[in-house]
Amino acid sequence: MAEIRFYHAQTRSAExxxxxxxxxxxxxNLRVACKFADEERMAYYDNYLWRYQPQxxxxxGTVHDGQAIHQPxxxxxxxxxxxxxxxxxxxENATLPEQHDFDLLCLxxxxxxxxxxxxxRQQWARLKEQNDMTLSYWQQQENGQWINKA
Length: 150
Known about the structure:
Elements: E1 2-9, H1 14-27, E2 32-35, H2 39-51, E3 61-62, E4 73-76, E5 87-91, E6 104-110, H3 114-128, E7 133-140, E8 146-148
Parallel strand pairs: 1-6, 1-7, 2-4, 2-5, 3-4, 5-6
Antiparallel strand pairs: 7-8
């Protein structure tokens, strides 16, 4: 049974919380795929993850870099993980893939973007009707911590 988590970024943007979420996944020795709606946003995040904090290093690559199987974090626009990840983070209104390939899907959405909020609500309602997965909703608090609201 797949687990799907909705991460509602409120005090920081989805862009700003992604490195923290990825770092936590890597600390747990998880391989992660990050899915974006288009190549332009994927390229943006590739650049962002190299420069978001000069003193840190978040190992990652894109599906275009080659050797995808060796990437602990793979940025993609595809529904599958060429790095054999069982965890996928879905950002910026990209569609959720079929969960049969993943143990954990994380939909990360920006609380300051009405379109992202609307699409997250629609996906939640659609998934709530299905009984073959575990859904949870994580809301970011003022202090930056995440609290499970559902």
